[in-house]
Design goal:
- The chain is α+β, with helices and mostly antiparallel strands and 429 residues long.
- Helices cover 23% and strands 34% of the residues.
- The chain folds into four domains: 1-24 and 107-190 and 274-319, Sandwich (Substrate Binding Domain Of DNAk, Chain A, domain 1), CATH 2.60.34; 33-95, no CATH class; 200-259, no CATH class; 335-426, no CATH class.
- The strands form five sheets. A six-stranded antiparallel beta sheet has the order 1-9-10-19-18-11, with no helix packed on it.
- A hairpin with an 8-residue loop joins β24 and β25.
- The longest helix is centred in the first third of the chain and has 14 residues, at 71-84.
- It is globular.
- The chain starts with a strand and ends with a strand.
Length: 429
Amino acid sequence: MGELLGTASFPSGDVLLIDFGLLRLWSGDRTPEPGPETDFEITGPDARQVAAALDLAVVKGRYAFDLEDAGPVAAKVAEVCRDTGLEASLRPLPRMAHHTRVRRLLDDFPEGAEVSFPGSWAVAVRGVPAGRELRVLGERMDPAGPDAGKWHSVWVECAAGTPVKTVECGYVLVDEARLLFADPAALNGWRSDEPYDGRYDLVFWGADAEAVAGRLGVSTVDDDGVYGWTDLTHDETASRHRELQGLGELRFRFDVRPHDDHYRVLRQMYRSPTESGAIEVAGATMTGWFTGWGDGTYPVFRDLAADGTLLRVRVELGAPEIVRRQRRFEELWFGDLAKLALVSARVAREGAPVTWLHREAADNDQDSGWRVFAGDETQDYLDDAANVRLVPLRDLIRADPGLEELFGHPAPAAFERAGPDVAFVPVDR
């Protein structure tokens, strides 16, 4: 059944799934600001087939938006045409408004399309019910698993029924850990960074937030230990901002939150057990929520009934590739690969390849026990503390991915190789 996050309505019959923290970059029906970028269209009798064969991330449908240099795309179009006998070419367009991009792409691909805008992209789908409020529902990850409490999937419920077919629409890019189901036409009324009442909240949090609050005589503004002021004028916000900047010796972070539409959703999200919020903009209801997984790209699907009826537009937040990415992130930044190795400056500073390494009992919880060398160091060189660095294992793997397999061996262990292009072999110390 799913948990209710809110409702959404789509008077245009189109739905856009977008990171609403990035809506300050969304032009709606306005032409994007002039710049060095140009939009392009693949035209010709075989345009759709050629576009599909390009396999280029910058190409969405028959279009490539916001390019400073179209040379690589044009060359790829020419290559595909030459190899297949298809006929198409690339032509420049006047800068296309972002809502126009949605409409053009959905005219070609009503079942779903990725829509580019500066530095990001969203996913649009056509054919959702236009005359009523639709529920936004979600399912969480296994409560007994390591990701308990996070969203597995969130969807707009378009009709009742059991899905029997799923069609991928594309991937939505998340850069600020939040998403919104919105009507793309109604987003013309969305206000970003422009308070609708001329007011702002200024909040702060962190290790020394309580000490900061004591100095400034303020209290918490929510139940999560966030302190600050609400409903400030522009001048009051500037004054309080300067006060906080003057406390740079303390450890805390602060944020100015204008009373715009972004703030209206966030204010509900901060207080909701589902970390979601719904607001009305330009006659359409929009629901936003925190992904729970942070930033990344997430697959979007149309779930269909046996007769082809659209039942859901769904984003899979706990997809297997996302879970794998989360485990990898945890391993690199909080697990064994975040631990430190003692590394010769020949490797750490000068970039020499590793040819000798060994593992001994760790000195402390942050120590991996690994000692890593270029292999040509003298004992006098290593006896100088200036020639030894503490380096996380993840950084060593980034420079030499083959080391990761070795780092899984327990102590005591030792490996060497004759050169950078030769495999490591175990040796006795």
